[in-house]
């Protein structure tokens, strides 16, 4: 029973890789952002992490300035 399940899983993964339209072997090909421009990548990381880390401080400031 386990051998059959393993075989089905293996064939399913093989088909997934085969028909995923990925050429494979290229680092960063499956990422949702480009790695070619280092300055744009750095700016996007700063915006992404800065928004998450800065949001509580802006929310606190907004609450303290409310009348």
From TrEMBL:
Coiled coil: none
Segments traversing the membrane: 41-60
Protein's membrane topology: Single-pass membrane protein
The keyword Transmembrane helix is annotated on this UniProt entry: yes
Gene3D superfamilies: Cytochrome c oxidase subunit VIIc
Pathway: Energy metabolism; oxidative phosphorylation
GO cellular component, one term: mitochondrial inner membrane
Keywords: Membrane, Mitochondrion, Mitochondrion inner membrane, Transit peptide, Transmembrane, Transmembrane helix
Annotated Pfam families: COX7C (PF02935)
GO biological process: mitochondrial electron transport, cytochrome c to oxygen
Locations listed in the record: Mitochondrion inner membrane
Family the UniProt entry places it in: Belongs to the cytochrome c oxidase VIIc family.
PANTHER family: CYTOCHROME C OXIDASE SUBUNIT 7C, MITOCHONDRIAL, CYTOCHROME C OXIDASE SUBUNIT VIIC
UniProt-recorded name of the protein: Cytochrome c oxidase subunit 7C, mitochondrial
